[in-house]
Amino acid sequence: MENRNIIIILLVIIVVLAAAIGVMLLNPTNAKEPAKVKIISDTKQYEDDGEVSIKLTDSNGTAISKEVVNITVTNSKGKVVVDDVVKTNSKGKAKLDLDLKKGKYVVNVTYGGNENYTGNNTTQKLTIKEKVVQTQSTTTTNRDTYVEREENGFKYGYKDGRYGFWTPSGNFIEDKSRALAGEDPMEPFMEDGSFNDQL
Known about the structure:
Elements: H1 2-26, E1 35-39, E2 44-46, E3 50-58, E4 68-75, E5 80-87, E6 93-98, E7 103-111, E8 120-129, E9 146-151, E10 154-159, E11 162-166, E12 172-174, H2 177-180
Parallel strand pairs: 2-8
Antiparallel strand pairs: 1-3, 3-6, 4-5, 4-7, 7-8, 9-10, 10-11, 11-12
């Protein structure tokens, strides 16, 4: 009877070992390679012209393409203002355009990994500055400067007593055709400073 118990114990051990070896052979343990996601866009940008650019690589710096990466942007109060995904291109890069107002933000980029690569995430502070818009003023400080009419982006009128037009970039170009045609350009203002209605 004792021999029979020993044989049963040995059979159980053999079956357990065989099952363990079978599981190991059917499911090889492939160690995932580490992935690295990096934010490559500037930390200081301007309103309505911002972006988050990222690059996803393996531990050797080789690009990982066609992978989905999550981008979240939170404002200074901790509120999520952007939550979107991008897909990496053949160079492992992806870009998300931002439409943010002036302020301080935190960008969080998360890659969840796949069967070959581990997940990774990174965070970066982002400052959005107010967009500087150059404006051109046609406000007159000289009574001899007057815009008579606007047409197709050009402003026609008088500057320093000379008739001409302003280009969209703000340059004044004198129109000498009236003088060449024998017409005397009329002054836009009367001697008392009021506008000349006969123009």
